[in-house]
Amino acid sequence: MKEYHTKIEINASKEKVWSALTDFESYSQWNPLVSAITGNLSEGGTIKTTIVPLQNTFEAVLLSFKENKEIVWKGKQGASFLLAGEHYYRIKESNKNLATLEHGEYFSGILSVFISKKLLKKMEQAFVAHNKALKERIENDK
Prior knowledge:
There is one protein chain. By secondary structure, the protein is α+β, with helices and mostly antiparallel strands. It has a single domain, classed as START domain (Alpha-D-Glucose-1,6-Bisphosphate, Chain A, domain 4), CATH 3.30.530. 25% of the residues lie in helices and 44% in strands. The protein has a 7-stranded antiparallel beta sheet with strand order 1-7-6-5-4-3-2. The termini are far apart.
């Protein structure tokens, strides 16, 4: 399995982080990684994510959508046993005005062994840029 994980502290409550993170309609205004998320936002529902660097839209199943806590979805290329990616956002509260966003992805399937370290690093950097843009949006909107 290939994976990468990022983390950022945001000077805001977990509720404020959740509100900005789930304001999917505004993603195109600030998000350098995902320009849109649409679909059935309930666990087990199908969503579509538009990934900016790839200029492509992917379907995924929403595995978890827990208010103020986490969003997890799983997409696949072909069949899950070939290549699947489980994308997550997790929000943890350090105190009332400091939250930590954990953001990453796990890849599984036979073809995941062909994902290079260079590509993983590039994807991780895109997640870091996303996290920084979200932090800036939240902290500058006081």
